[in-house]
From TrEMBL:
Keyword Repeat: no
Pathway involvement of the protein, from the record: Lipid metabolism; fatty acid beta-oxidation; Lipid metabolism; butanoate metabolism
Protein's recorded name: 3-hydroxyacyl-CoA dehydrogenase/enoyl-CoA hydratase/carnithine racemase
InterPro entries in the cross-refs: 3-OHacyl-CoA_DH_NAD-bd, 3HC_DH_C, 6-PGluconate_DH-like_C_sf, ClpP/crotonase-like_dom_sf, Enoyl-CoA_hydra/iso, FA_oxidation_alpha_subunit, NAD(P)-bd_dom_sf
Keywords of the record: Fatty acid metabolism, Lipid degradation, Lipid metabolism, Lyase, Multifunctional enzyme, NAD, Oxidoreductase
Length: 688
């Protein structure tokens, strides 16, 4: 047997207690997973943690209890494998043994003649959820923060039984959603209610007395007074479900995420193979994928999101931050209304919107109230919270309501003169200490503040649409922005539950600048005569969340052209103005109809006679990205390449398997061929 160990492992210990529970005549074995830290450092399993669990199972079986139950420390069940040790595996045999070790330990619960229960009291992800699936029965706390099998997002598959157990519990369609679709959709988590409705848990309980009620329920199951019924899985439609899922994967990812296809194959195996056969194939898939560049990029991206995003590089000390007890929002359009709702919901302070007339104000406040009602209807907000948040948001046509606001953010038309006029008027109203935030996607914060008496209190807040969904917040420091204003911005961003990145005041900042360069290269290829179908599909091998034309339609050609104008003014050689893009903006035609290119769009274009092949378009785009990212790094727009990747992952939804983008540019050799050097040290997000 190959020995493996993770030198940096924080061992999650399995602590056994023998307890008495009314309704059963023998003691109950209760195993609690606990790594000795609070919920901020969740339980994970490395070789040491698996050994501790196996030992606890030995002790539990020896006691011959009425049943064995496993739960976690407060707020956390277990969030899976210890990923810090995975890059340390040196051989395929070691990777195989990691999979087999987890299977051997977990299978003891599945194969036990004594009933086994998982009391999922908190976050359960990856191997943690797979551990629960091996138990005969499961209860789930409605307060569990996150439930998922996120491995595919990292470039892996659920490797400790998840691909075999889950489809046989909840069916292949639901299993494919949890194992493949959710990880590839911004790593979407299941809510406890969803998990229970799917059948992942047998019983959903409130957190206040979760353990006590779980023990009582388990006693009822063992004693025979409670019967657990599970619907039969439809095996006749299994192959059809997988055929459809494969077609969707090919259409969306074009083979760019090997882990997704391996996971789908394993779900297919689960239909008829024995558990031993299926888990052996899991072991093989896990071992193969551990030695892939996609996994290294996935782990790099995971580290960015989990660590770097929580400690923004360059952010001033929070001691400089000003308390925000009231927020003003200039504007009552869609973006302004989204911001008002977000600030009220997260900061729990009064938020007042203004606009040019009462009709617009009423429409903005009405939007906020409607969104609150939707949240209540979907069970995402209780009635009491809804009433409070609704009362916090008001509107007025009189900007004097901003006089006592600590933070005022504008969300007016993206035109420098308009924004400057707003600030000139507001400076006469707000207190000298109020922080003024501009929600701009491309304009200069420095220029916006230039004519003010106190330009040091102006800071940029670049949110991404939809505001409530995308986690990125680019915080822009103008040339005169003070530490106090900046610290307040970061403190507010944290309260808003956004991942903040400090950005120097530069045209279009980071995410939009990279995205516009990406679209500009595609547009240039189209202008040269490349057929729309070829240009649009050329980037398919990267597995981006949407093709270029779908992205352009989402952003809107008019907005894309407007941002390009800003960038063209600063960098005319790299951001040419396209007459075709202007024509699309003016025509206001849908670029796609039923996911197909609109023939009217093709007819509108005036193109050259030097078309490019798909390979040429793709390389042109990659070269442009490498050049632009190197340029903005040399300009000091952000501290490091990691911040560019963080912006692309959290603001543009670019996938973990690319590591954002710079790891991909490095491993394809594009970085060195275009800029003469890599963005990241060798081995940072790749095998070499």
């Amino acid at each position: 047997m190959t020995e493996i160990s993770f030198p940096s492992e924080v061992v999650t210990k399995s602590l056994l207690r023998l307890v008495r529970v009314p309704g059963v005549d023998r003691q109950v074995a209760l195993i609690t997973l606990d790594n000795g830290f609070d919920h901020k450092k969740p339980n994970t399993f490395g070789p040491g943690g698996l050994a501790s669990l196996s030992e606890a199972i030995d002790q539990a079986l020896a006691a011959e209890p009425a049943f064995i139950a496993i739960t976690g420390k407060p707020y956390v069940f277990c969030v899976g494998a210890d990923l810090t040790g995975v890059p340390l595996l040196e051989t395929h045999a070691q990777a195989l043994e990691l999979g087999r070790l987890g299977h051997r330990v977990f299978a003891r619960l599945k194969d036990s003649t004594i009933p086994t229960f998982a009391f999922i009291n908190g976050a359960a992800m990856g191997g943690g959820l797979e551990l629960a699936l091996h138990c005969h029965y499961r209860t789930l706390s409605s307060g569990a923060a996150a439930l998922a099998l996120p491995e595919v997002s990292l470039g892996l598959v659920p490797g400790w039984g998840g691909t075999q157990l889950l489809p046989n519990l909840i069916g292949p369609a639901n299993a494919a959603t949890v194992i493949i679709q959710n990880p590839l959709t911004q790593n979407r988590m299941l809510k406890p209610k969803q998990a229970a409705e799917m059948g992942i848990a047998d019983l959903l309980l409130e957190p206040a007395d979760f353990l006590e009620r779980s023990l009582a329920w388990a006693a009822g199951v063992v004693g025979g007074s409670i019967t657990v019924e599970r619907p039969e899985v439809d095996r006749d439609s299994w192959d059809g479900v997988l055929y459809f899922a494969k077609a969707m994967l090919d259409k969306r990812l074009h083979g760019a995420v090997p882990a997704a296809n391996r996971a789908l194959e394993l779900i297919g195996v689960a239909k008829g193979a024995s558990f031993a056969e299926g888990t052996a194939l899991e072991d093989q898939a896990l071992a193969d994928l551990i030695f892939s560049d996609e996994l290294r990029s996935g782990l790099y991206a995971f580290d960015l999101v989990q660590r770097r995003a929580k400690k923004p590089v360059g952010a001033p000390s929070p001691v400089h931050a000003k308390d925000v007890t009231k927020v003003g929002v200039v504007g009552a359009g869609l973006m302004a209304s989204q911001l008002a709702l977000l600030f009220a919901r997260r900061l729990q302070v009064p938020v007042v919107m203004t606009d040019l007339d009462q009709e617009r104000v009423d429409k903005g406040v009405g939007y906020v109230h409607a969104e609150i009602d939707k949240a209540v209807g979907k069970g995402r907000m209780d009635a009491g919270t809804a009433a409070k948040v609704r009362a916090l948001v008001t509107g007025s046509v009189d900007r004097s309501v901003f006089a006592d606001a600590d933070l005022v953010i504008e969300a007016v038309f993206e035109e420098l003169s308009v924004k400057k006029q707003v600030w000139a008027e507001l400076e006469k109203i707000v207190s000298p200490e109020a922080v003024l935030a501009t929600n701009t996607s491309s304009l200069s914060v420095t220029e916006m503040a230039a004519d003010l008496e106190h330009p040091e209190r102006v800071v940029g807040f670049h949110f991404f649409n939809p505001v409530a969904v995308l986690p990125l917040l680019e915080i822009i420091r103008g040339e005169q922005t003070s530490d106090a204003a900046l610290a307040t911005a970061f403190a507010v961003g944290k309260q808003l539950r956004k991942s903040c990145v400090l950005v120097k005041d530069a045209p279009a900042f980071v995410a939009n600048r990279v995205l516009v360069r990406f679209l500009s290269e595609i547009q240039s290829a189209i202008d040269a005569g490349t057929p729309l179908e070829v240009a649009d599909s050329a980037i398919d091998p990267l597995g981006l969340p949407m093709r270029p034309l779908a992205l352009l339609q989402l952003v809107g050609p008019a907005i894309a052209y407007h941002v390009t104008e800003t960038l063209h003014a600063a960098f005319p050689d790299r951001f040419p103005l396209s007459a075709n893009l202007k024509a699309l903006a003016d025509a206001r035609l849908p670029l796609l109809v039923d996911d197909e290119i609109n023939p009217a769009v093709t007819a509108l274009l005036t193109v050259g006679d030097t078309p490019l092949s798909a390979d040429e378009v793709r390389q042109k785009v990659l070269d442009g990205l490498a050049q632009e990212i190197r340029t903005l790094l040399d300009e000091g727009v952000v501290a490091e390449a990691q911040d560019v990747d963080l912006c692309m992952i959290l603001g543009a939804g670019w996938p973990f398997h690319l590591g954002g983008i710079t790891p991909y540019l490095d491993r394809t050799g594009t970085s060195e061929s275009v800029t003469g050097r890599r963005f990241l040290p060798k081995g940072t997000a790749s095998l070499a």
